[in-house]
Design brief:
The complex is a heterodimer of chains A (229) and B (327). With 229 residues, chain A is mostly helical. Chain A has eleven helices and no strands. The chains are: A mainly alpha (229), B alpha+beta (327). Chains A and B meet through α6 and α7 of A and β4 of B.
């Protein structure tokens, strides 16, 4: 029973250190797609979080609660929803995005928006509000004052971005259902591991698994280090 | 008031900060009207105030940055200034508060007095027409106080900056300002030049010098021709004058007797209360007693020890009707 596992691990490290082109193209593609997802999601999450953290309005608590609740949204359910929306016969099918790298990025961006919004909102709320009055009395417009607060919260913003990237990079459901795991196009670390394991190519799966773990682990160590500071 | 220093003099909680924040365009007044110069400012026009005034808060707050970047913040918002111009102005402002060498230090790591000087420089660098200062020297050491006071006077003299300064310190008001507004419980009780306020009768002086034990209420004349001032449902003070209607009175802290049991005496005012604060100032101890309203009382340390009272102890406050002064 242990034979294939040990064989797999040995072969995995051979693949890793021989800089196997297939392995590394999958790693780079995963980094790129999840990176793009984080950029998109950050662009719309920052203003949402600034408003939630700084303004008072009806329904604010409900909105905050919703974003909090959606942090744990099941990735396959989101994948299914997006698949139905973007499939050829779906309402957004005409965009032709299904089974493209961009589609995976969009899906992951939606998936991580609740993390970004919730974490950044908390970071903004932790900033001394008198700083906003300070910015105002020094000549800031309301938007400039909000930017000043976001800059003060930059530690929390970076933390949120790292956590969001972590979630996007390690998820399987969205990438599988809207990406399609197409060789050389939408095959990512997670989807490749799922596929190769099914096909019986255990060493390849283990090699990819080691890389995925290494990246996620490094990210988490960085997050913990930043959080302590 | 243009080009002068005006102090808002009143105890803490009297509304000085709120008034300054309204003048700074940070808050809308709940009623009343603001005039800037001859111009009436409506609630939608707070920007006019924000463009012409700047405020230094009582508690220094900083952007998580160096002294230089904190002071430069307001200048960087203006698009028409070059890096060099900004740098010159920042250096000039830091020189005014004598912090030339502090550019690269982290602002939040400085002492309280130095922080307040950075806050002042951060406001001065903008060279606004109106400078609003909220208790700029409270809780800082004498050396920093004198630097701040000198800077305030110098800026007023050399740049003709109009300054409104909130303080509870009568001596500071007298030393720095040309005009004084006395504020109590949310209302401006009296305004005038320094001479008008500090020069005469001294009843104002007495009350505002201590800035405690000032009570307002509706007064009625009793059968004995004294005044009974109804401060609230539970607290009425008897005074040896006759004056009816809405009035404010003051009792000097040293005129109040403290005892652990009710005293048999001729004094007309006896209140039961609980000690909520003790401040040691040498041989004298100041007690804050909650007897429905807060009273400030002075006793010697020896009496404090002999009565063996402490925070939380129940005490009786006694004072004569003639110790109650009309403001």
């Amino acid at each position: 029973m242990t034979g294939p596992i040990i064989d797999g691990i040995i072969k995995a490290f051979q693949l890793l250190f021989s800089l196997d082109p297939e392995v590394y193209s999958i790693v780079l593609r995963s980094l790129y797609i999840s990176g793009l997802a984080v950029v998109m999601a950050t662009l719309w999450s920052l203003p949402i979080a600034a408003i939630l953290g700084l303004k008072n309005f009806r329904g604010k608590r409900f909105l905050r609660g919703s974003f909090n609740a959606f942090i744990g949204f099941p990735t396959v359910v989101l994948g299914l929803l997006l698949f139905l929306l973007f499939s050829r016969s779906g309402p957004l099918g005409s965009f032709g995005l299904l089974f493209t790298p961009l589609m995976i990025s969009i899906g992951q961006a939606i998936l991580i928006t609740p993390i970004l919004v919730s974490f950044i909102t908390s970071a903004v709320e932790a900033i001394d509000l008198s700083l906003r009055d300070l910015a105002r009395t020094l000549g800031s417009t309301e938007i400039q004052a909000s930017i000043a607060i976001l800059r003060e919260a930059s530690g929390g913003v970076i933390l949120a971005i790292l956590a969001a990237f972590n979630r996007a990079f390690a998820e399987l459901g969205v990438a599988m259902m809207v990406g399609g795991n197409i060789y050389g196009r939408t095959r990512l670390l997670t989807t490749a591991i799922a596929l190769e394991t099914n096909r019986g190519d255990i060493p390849f799966s283990i090699a990819l698994g080691v890389i995925l773990l290494a990246i996620v682990y490094t990210l988490n160590i960085t997050i913990n280090y930043l959080r302590r500071r | 008031m243009k080009g002068t220093i005006t102090t808002l003099l009143g105890p803490s909680g009297s509304g000085k900060t709120t008034l300054l924040r309204i003048l700074a365009g940070l808050e809308n007044p709940t009623r009343g009207t603001i005039f800037y110069g001859n111009r009436m400012i409506t609630n939608g026009e707070r920007n006019i105030l924000r463009q012409n005034a700047t405020m230094v808060f009582q508690k220094s707050v900083f952007f998580d940055a160096t002294v230089y970047n904190n002071v430069a913040y307001g200048l960087k918002l203006k698009e028409d200034l070059s890096k060099e111009e900004i740098s010159n102005k920042v250096k000039e402002a830091l020189a005014l508060v004598r912090l030339e060498e502090f550019e690269k230090r982290r602002a939040e790591k400085l002492s309280g007095g130095e922080q307040q000087r950075v806050s002042l420089a951060r406001a001065l660098v903008l060279d606004r027409q109106l400078l609003l200062l909220d208790e700029p020297t409270v809780n800082i050491d004498p050396k920093n106080v004198s630097i701040i006071e000198e800077t305030i006077q110098r800026v007023n003299r050399e740049r003709k900056t109009t300054i409104v300064l909130a303080t509870h310190n009568m001596f500071q008001a007298e030393a720095l300002s040309q005009n004084v507004a006395l504020i109590l419980e949310g209302t401006v009780k009296q305004t005038g030049t320094k001479q008008e306020i500090f020069g005469k009768s001294n009843k104002y002086l007495t009350s505002f010098a201590r800035l405690e034990n000032v009570f307002s209420g509706v007064s009625e004349i009793s059968d004995d021709y004294t005044s009974i001032i109804h401060v609230d449902d539970k607290l009425s003070i008897e005074a040896a004058f006759n004056s009816a209607g809405e009035i404010s009175v003051h009792v000097r802290p040293e005129d109040i007797l403290v005892s652990t049991r009710p005293l048999q005496s001729s004094a007309r005012n006896v209140f039961k209360g609980r000690i909520i604060g003790i401040t040691d100032i040498g041989p004298i101890v100041r007690l804050t007693v909650d007897a429905g309203k807060k009273f400030g009382v002075q006793i010697t340390k020896k009496s404090l020890n002999e009565m063996s009272i402490n925070v939380g102890s129940e005490v009786y406050l006694t004072f004569k009707a003639s110790a109650v002064n009309l403001i």
